[in-house]
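Exercise: predict the fold of this chain.
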Amino acid sequence: PRSMKPKIRVGIIGCGLMGGIHAECYAREKGCEIVGFQNRSRAKAEELAKRFGGVVFDTVGKMLADPRIDAVSIASSQQVHAEQMIAAARAGKHILCEKPLALTVQELDAIQKAVSKNRRTVMVAHQLRFHPVIEVVLRNLSKLGVIYHLDLEWTLLIKASKGRCWADYRSGGFFMELGCHLADLSHHLLGEIRNVSAHTLRLNPERVTEDYP
């Protein structure tokens, strides 16, 4: 019975918007227990620890060394995802990581190697896979016969010209930040992707990166 299973004890790395959402979800789940938080600025970690319980870790290394923690949620900036995932796998922790997992193929290869060697379970936070609309679409795709084309559109009204989506390419730009959801849904709905083509535009000239992939 589910009630008899031991709780999954979680540490949350990154205490911004998504770290807070992860904490709220774990707090509602009876099968989970939040052990603690780590963030670049300690104040944000302390704020979440006050709301949801748990301790504050000064560094990622100290969190990963804590034997109480079974798994980590990585909700930090994508520039450090690969580094933190590899460290977590080597420390024997299971991993839920925000998208994108990495910014280069080389980083992905290194993550896969560390995870496989240490036999850890990894999940990417592509929550749209579990959206009720997507689940209905997936159940009914077979009724359409052979599918040759999938067109996905996602419109977001974001007026700002600054921020990690637009400021520079260090975080991968808009496509890596949000557009990767659509790439994942394409794979989720149709299977292996063989060919990719794309067009990008910059609708707001004040932005550094493309804003319309």
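Check your answer against the key: The mean pLDDT is 90.
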